[in-house]
Amino acid sequence: MADWLAALDRRAELRAKAGLTRTLRPRAAGDAVVDLAGNDYLGLATHPEVTAAAGRALSAYGLGATGSRLVRGSTDAHHALEDDLARWLGVDRALVFSSGYLANLAAVRGLVQPRTLLVSDAHNHASLIDGCRISGVETIVTPHADVDAVAAALAAAPGRPAVVVTESVFSVDGDLAPLAALHAVARRHGALLLVDDAHALGVTGPAGAGGVAAAGLAGEPDVVVTATLSKALGGAGGVVAGPAEFVRHLVETGRTFIFDTAPPPAVVAGVRAALRLARSGDDLRAELAERAALVVRRLGGAGLEVSAPDAAVVSVTAPGPEAATAWAADCRDRGVAVGCFRPPSTPDSRSRLRLTLSAGVDRADFERALDVIVDCAAVSARSEPGLRAPQSRTEDGS
Ligand SMILES: Cc1ncc(COP(=O)(O)O)c(C=O)c1O
């Protein structure tokens, strides 16, 4: 075997020894699993209005955008979605990207000047971390959701431009950032606040407008919002939203906008239809909140360690990476897909199952899935001494 391939094999062996092998599992169209692993929070990915809108644009424009918007031209579908996003988020202007990852890279990089200090939460998503890295400026990583640490970092850099970088709903445990407090601290120090609303858009805030809107910060001139269009909106793509001058700056200088093929018009049109449904989806959001509380009652009641039910993401602690893998595999064998998060996909050394809730999953299937997760924890506990066996069902069956 060539040297470089042998070196890769050795690294794969090390990952395997640490229980951190990643493998691709098959997924069939319309498979019958109960999906607690995807991010289709409102069940809009398959909504007939969404797929019909995408189908019409597919017929009109074809499969792909065929180029970046600056080179190939900017379709009505892209502009219409951006106008709707800007109105929904309460900002001047929005710009779509072909993924949330690329939107975050552009947003962070677009906000920095040579002397800028970035202050980034320790639990931030990889795309924000990479945005800080490619920006090439000093980055201080502050302990998770620690407003005092953010204040101290800003106070230690008087007179320097600074950006506080955070998610609103953190992607691994679903907990909320203290956005109002972070904004107050940022403003006191003349810093900007960049918020990734990926897991909040459509799920929290007035008319589902996300965590920034929920914190009363929509349209603030020192706040920039990013989000993915691939979770509650059920499609693909990302958005950066904020002051018109900043969006113009990204159109003219954002490398992941300029040098990337635009998101396909069909997806953009589908996402726009999803946005209309998400805005009026208070009933879906109420259902999600009920389900999150039910997870905590059922799994917490069975003695499992569960994160706070703040949004549509709830994590359940596993004793280690191998136990997490076995637990998730057992669930899958019984028809329930759950996320299995192990280092380095976790912000700390703790492995978890991550349950992402969807109002689109049948309620009875969802409740049965919770029983499966508890049962499988018991099975895994027998083969893995570190995993605490759950207690029996609570009396009210929740
Ligand atoms: C918090 C957060 N930001 C950004 C992204 C990236 O979005 P996309 O999948 O559209 O690239 C994700 C995950 O998908 C995420 O969880």
TrEMBL record:
<comment type="similarity">
    <text>Belongs to the class-II pyridoxal-phosphate-dependent aminotransferase family. BioF subfamily.</text>
</comment>
<keyword id="KW-0093">Biotin biosynthesis</keyword>
<dbReference type="InterPro" id="IPR001917">
    <property type="entry name" value="Aminotrans_II_pyridoxalP_BS"/>
</dbReference>
<dbReference type="Pfam" id="PF00155">
    <property type="entry name" value="Aminotran_1_2"/>
</dbReference>
<keyword id="KW-0663">Pyridoxal phosphate</keyword>
<dbReference type="InterPro" id="IPR050087">
    <property type="entry name" value="AON_synthase_class-II"/>
</dbReference>
<comment type="pathway">
    <text>Cofactor biosynthesis; biotin biosynthesis.</text>
</comment>
<protein>
    <recommendedName>
        <fullName>8-amino-7-oxononanoate synthase</fullName>
        <ecNumber>2.3.1.47</ecNumber>
    </recommendedName>
</protein>
<dbReference type="InterPro" id="IPR015422">
    <property type="entry name" value="PyrdxlP-dep_Trfase_small"/>
</dbReference>
<dbReference type="InterPro" id="IPR004839">
    <property type="entry name" value="Aminotransferase_I/II_large"/>
</dbReference>
<dbReference type="GO" id="GO:0009102">
    <property type="term" value="P:biotin biosynthetic process"/>
</dbReference>
<feature type="domain" description="Aminotransferase class I/classII large">
    <location>
        <begin position="33"/>
        <end position="373"/>
    </location>
</feature>
<dbReference type="InterPro" id="IPR015424">
    <property type="entry name" value="PyrdxlP-dep_Trfase"/>
</dbReference>
<dbReference type="GO" id="GO:0008710">
    <property type="term" value="F:8-amino-7-oxononanoate synthase activity"/>
</dbReference>
<comment type="subunit">
    <text>Homodimer.</text>
</comment>
<dbReference type="InterPro" id="IPR015421">
    <property type="entry name" value="PyrdxlP-dep_Trfase_major"/>
</dbReference>
<dbReference type="GO" id="GO:0030170">
    <property type="term" value="F:pyridoxal phosphate binding"/>
</dbReference>
<keyword id="KW-0808">Transferase</keyword>
